[in-house]
Amino acid sequence: VKMASQAASVVRQVKPILSINREDARRKVLTLYKAWIRQVPISLLTYDIPKSEVDCKRKIREEFKRHAHLTDLRIIDTVIIKGQMELQEVANMWKPTGALMYYWKETWEKKPTDFMSKFLSGQD
């Protein structure tokens, strides 16, 4: 029983990576978001991708909203660090165009399972 209480106290004493509290984490996320939005016009000039500025900003918003459910400060800080590294790769043109286009990958349609759907799609 004593070991369990010691382990629980160790878990509670783990410090966050960057953020002190939720407000600090929120401020850092918003700063990163603004940096990404400011980088869009520059990236469109340097990378030759067939997307508009509106498409890029929409995709950035989608990526940030994908992580909106996170509550643990350490995980939020880790995602912030990854986002900063990704932004640095894009800003310095270390990321190839194909890797950038991966964010707009097409979704795969499920293969038909019944006879009529297979027939209409041209499968055996």
Automatic annotation (TrEMBL):
Q: Which GO terms describe its biological process?
A: response to oxidative stress
The GO cellular component terms are: mitochondrial inner membrane; respiratory chain complex I
Q: Which residues form a coiled coil?
A: none
What is the first-listed, main subcellular location in coarse terms? mitochondrion
Q: Enumerate the subcellular locations listed in this protein's record, separating them with semicolons.
A: Mitochondrion inner membrane
Q: Which UniProt keywords apply?
A: Electron transport, Membrane, Mitochondrion, Mitochondrion inner membrane, Respiratory chain, Transport
**Topology in the lipid bilayer:** Peripheral membrane protein
Which InterPro entries does the record associate with it?
Answer: Complex1_LYR_dom, Complex1_LYR_NDUFA6_LYRM6, NADH_Ub_cplx-1_asu_su-6
Query: Where does the Complex 1 LYR protein domain start and stop, copy by copy?
Result: 27-89
Per the record, the domain of life is Eukaryota
Quaternary context: Mammalian complex I is composed of 45 different subunits.
- PANTHER family linked: NADH DEHYDROGENASE [UBIQUINONE] 1 ALPHA SUBCOMPLEX SUBUNIT 6, NADH-UBIQUINONE OXIDOREDUCTASE B14 SUBUNIT
Role according to the record: Accessory subunit of the mitochondrial membrane respiratory chain NADH dehydrogenase (Complex I), that is believed to be not involved in catalysis. Required for proper complex I assembly. Complex I functions in the transfer of electrons from NADH to the respiratory chain. The immediate electron acceptor for the enzyme is believed to be ubiquinone.
Q: To which protein family does this belong? A: Belongs to the complex I LYR family.
**Protein name according to UniProt:** NADH dehydrogenase [ubiquinone] 1 alpha subcomplex subunit 6
